[in-house]
Amino acid sequence: MVTLGALWLPILLSAVLVFVVSSILxxxxxxxxxxxxxxxxxxxxxxxxRGGNPEPRQYMIPYMADFNEMKTPEMxxxxxxxxxxxxxxRKSGAYSMGPSLAQWFVFSLVIAVFAGYVxxxxxxxxxxxxxxxxxxxxxxxxxxxxxxxxxxxxxxxxWSITLKDVFDGLLYGLVTAGAFGWRWPH
Length: 186
What we know:
The chain is mostly helical. The protein contains seven helices and two strands, in the order H-H-E-H-E-H-H-H-H. The longest helix has 26 residues, at about 95-120.
């Protein structure tokens, strides 16, 4: 059996490689640049939201405290008129990428630790590269891509964006699998 401690190098290496691949996808290839677009009346929407002074949270528009409200004519009218949205509000102020990048790196480490844990419990030392690659790649892919799908199912996130997120997860899973396959203990 391989201990999780023996996998510190592939865990760290895979997190670094995922961070680099992610940076390339977002800063060089920029195929996510059109995932968000500007509202035609952005200033009016911003003013309306600011006027309500809501705290940073996630909101549903139109809001209903109980799903039974959906049956009322008033709520059906609100849905018919629109807009229907899930709105996430962040704290006001200048946006800094530093904390988000740090959290992304920690998330990548967590995925690598779980992938390493599963592999360490199922694969002995000296396992061939391809077998390590398959096990770790599957777990890492599920960790990176599995959570991308429910927002399209439940919140109306466009499937075209979700498919790009799943593709990213596939790439991150492959990179993680490659690092573990390369550095698996013998």
